[in-house]
Design a protein that fits this description.
Elements (H helix, E strand, L loop, with lengths): L5 H15 L4 H66 L19 H6 L3 H7 L8 H8 L4
């Protein structure tokens, strides 16, 4: 682009001071700064728009690839379903005498449920695990002499 070094900028500043004059130079410099800022913002906006359009194109390509893959999967699923339906209709199966196991409702025995509780949980919550008589409990909690 332009190769503006410090010496060239100083020369432009001296020429601008002579041509424009010291009274109007700050106003002209401010105006030039505003215009330069607007130009930079415009260039940044154009770059962002180009990037957005490129990303949109990439997303559209990915969308079309995804739709093609979904169509392939759908086609293979349709083939499997038709094969299954044909096999089902012909009455063939891998296990000819297959029948589901009969349903047994869960047993409602509280002892079994209580015994399935882990020991660490019982200890933490203070659940008694052994039967103790009243006299044994009193003896256990009696203060020592």
């Amino acid at each position: 682009m332009l190769d503006l070094g410090l010496d060239k900028l100083a020369m432009i500043g001296v020429v601008a001071l002579i041509v424009i004059g010291p009274e109007r130079l700050p106003k002209v410099a401010r105006t030039a700064g505003h215009l330069l800022g607007k130009a930079r913002r415009y260039v940044a906006d154009v770059k962002a728009e180009v990037n957005r359009s490129m990303e949109l194109d990439e997303l559209n390509k990915m969308k079309s690839q995804f739709q093609e893959a979904a169509a392939e999967v759908s086609g293979s699923l349709n083939e499997v379903q038709t094969t299954f339906n044909e096999t089902w209709a012909s009455g063939e199966s891998a296990e000819p005498n297959w029948s589901p196991a009969p349903y047994k409702p869960p047993r409602k025995n509280w002892r079994i449920r209580r015994s399935n509780t882990p020991v660490w949980f019982k200890q933490r919550n203070g659940v008694r695990r052994h039967v103790q008589s009243g006299a044994a409990r009193v003896a256990r909690h009696r203060p020592r002499r």
